[in-house]
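Two entries, shown back to back:
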Amino acid sequence: MRGSVDWRDVKYEETFEQELRGLERRRESDQSCRVEDLEGLLRHLYIMDGADWAGRGEVQDIIMAATIAAYEQVIAEWKASCGR
């Protein structure tokens, strides 16, 4: 049956939206937060993603992918709004 939604897609979207909301709240409430700060955190996420030698498991891989995507989106939008 094609009508059912895969749990992986649900988890990805849930995590992605949570991360977006959290990053937006941080940007609004923390005046010292700069795009460079988020870029540093994103570099760290890339390292963590690549350092999966023990195997996180499917759920954690989905969470990591959604988190990285959210950071990438927020950074791209922030830079576009500043004309970078």
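entry 2 starts here
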Amino acid sequence: MNPTDLEQPRAAILSFPRRRGRPRTAHKGRDLDTPELAQKRRTGETTETLDLCLERGIITHRQHWSGIHLRWLYTLRYGAPGIRAVDPAHVRGLDLKLDDPHWRAEREKEYHEAIARLTLSGHALLLMNICIYNERPHFLTARSLNTTHLKVHEQIMTKLSTGLESLATVWEKRK
């Protein structure tokens, strides 16, 4: 018998890397989203309707502000349009500042006056659909138009511009 046979086999010492956890992933440049989203951005499908109207010169900056102001007033009165479940008593642990009832009453009055004015002029439904609900009229998405469609679309664009201009003049006087 050999003296080396009597010795216990030595345990192998394993070396562990100093960094623990999941290895880092190699990022390959900027993340440009999915190809589908990039295509939608190129065609302007992700742009809001009011912003698209401003970009294409259908409305002015003043009219654009009026549309956004109308949406803001609607949001104060009814909340943001859309589907969601929210517990109004608890907003992510934040302490909400006390609401000023006089200020809120003034904004609600301003909203109701604007809607009454638009209803009388016949622009209320169009402006609510575009400004508040962000619906896109056909003239912004149509590829080719015949003369009949052009006349209808011009009428809609004129109604949109006229309605927003009437709101802009009223709100400009208040300032």
